[in-house]
Amino acid sequence: MTHIYSTAAQMSAALAAKEVSSVDLTKEHLARIAQVDTDVHAFLYVDKEGALAQAEAADKLRAAGGAISPLAGVPLALKDVLAQKGIPTTCGSKMLENWRPPYDSTVVTKLKAAGVVILGKTNMDEFAMGSSTENSAYGPTHNPWDLDRIPGGSGGGSAAALAAFEAPLAIGTDTGGSIRQPAAVTGTVGVKPTYGGVSRYGLVAFSSSLDQAGPCARTVLDTALLHEVIAGYDERDSTSINQAVPDVVAAAKRQEVKGMKIGVVKELGGDGFQAGVSQRFQEALEILVANGAEIVEVSCPNFEYALAAYYLIAPSEASSNLARFDSMRYGIRVGDDGTVGAEEVMRATRHLGFGPEVKRRIILGTYALSSGYYDAYYGSAQKVRTLIKRDYEKAFESVDVLVSPTCPTTAFKIGEKSDDPLAMYLNDIATIPVNMAGIGGMSLPCGLAPEDNLPVGFQIMSPVMQDDRMYRVGGTLEAALVSKWGQPLLSAETKLAVK
Ligand code: GLN
């Protein structure tokens, strides 16, 4: 019997009951990867030996008795932007081809301490810049629902690995939507925790004031179990919040929303959103009302400027962060034949090492930060950011959580938007405000759009360090939807393009 269609919580129970060993569970997933990943291309690197060694260690620990994490022995897919000691970490870039970090990121340290089995590294848009995984230097990932479509981005590999049943758990990172948008278009669950809730130590920086790692899975509870493992204060990250992690697992299990006030953000929906997306979103709202929640409409007028401000702040920070790839400290080195100077080697390395989208962002960011323009661009964008934060603060005075569709559309075709950066950027119109304010955001599936039978994402936003609220609402909605459908959106019966 295979366990790949189970949830992580079910795998955990099967491990505890000794119905399966972690080694067997890991082998089942490695076999699945071998079977489907030539089509899906979710993984950039599969660490077969390392995963089996970690599984064996988890089995030994369990046999010895004593305290053990609920996720010990459960396999996971890791986005290739997080450092794992000795394992290639490319960030989807030629620049870091074959780079093996000499240390573990804090997320990886915590995963290892909990006995989670890391299967390998997942594909992503280069340096996490993109919404489709087409910007990976190693070729696109394909959406398991329809292999001609994108799995979202930048963390398309992690989301696709979950949807294709190659792993029950994954780690993503979210700077403007890279956990939530891939979750939405693959019918999976993804959470961007409060900024500072999960350590950024060892997370290759794109836009440091926005980047946040978070849990991805096929259910809200699995996401909560993983959240609990990776979250918490870390003195090695100066922006880490020194507070207790909210009890997200209890919140995910609670399954009731009686008396909760839920605000629908007027600006994140309506015109420009696919009809089937809006329809499924409305139906989900009705379910929440039927479960005792009160729904009110809320206006956040400054969200209109979020996308424009993001595309000043994120490229500005990227242009500064990516200056470290100078052909000397990390990654590849091009054209150093002993006859040319350091500047020429640097130029040749950055020319070959970075792809077009990364170059576009570096140019944008360098311009926005240049003296004479700094106040007009970067400075104004920071002011807009404050206004967005205030919109949220005001809204959270009267509601417990805010909700919206996660993305304007379902998964689009590979190639459809790759020549149109602005069309690509618009994917994140509903996810970016969360990052600008540093609050928590979750996406969970709320059905298939009637017009194309592709997954639709429901976004829940909660105030700083109140991440438990979105798990409470998400857990309730998920339970009601699964009982309405008679099965989860993703199950062994799901008609995926990968068999
Ligand atoms: N799609 C957005 C961008 O291209 C967000 C990416 C992310 O969250 N890493 O910047």
Automatic annotation (TrEMBL):
Catalytic activity entry: L-glutamyl-tRNA(Gln) + L-glutamine + ATP + H2O = L-glutaminyl-tRNA(Gln) + L-glutamate + ADP + phosphate + H(+)
The keyword tRNA-binding is assigned to this record: no
Annotated organism of origin: freshwater metagenome
EC number: 6.3.5.7
Keyword check for Ligase: yes
GO MF entries: ATP binding; glutaminyl-tRNA synthase (glutamine-hydrolyzing) activity
GO biological processes: translation
Family: Belongs to the amidase family. GatA subfamily.
GO cellular component: glutamyl-tRNA(Gln) amidotransferase complex; mitochondrion
Protein keywords: ATP-binding, Ligase, Nucleotide-binding, Protein biosynthesis
NCBIfam families: gatA
InterPro entries, A to Z: Amidase (IPR000120), Amidase_CS (IPR020556), Amidase_dom (IPR023631), AS_sf (IPR036928), GatA (IPR004412)
Protein's UniProt name: glutaminyl-tRNA synthase (glutamine-hydrolyzing)
Domain Amidase: 24-469
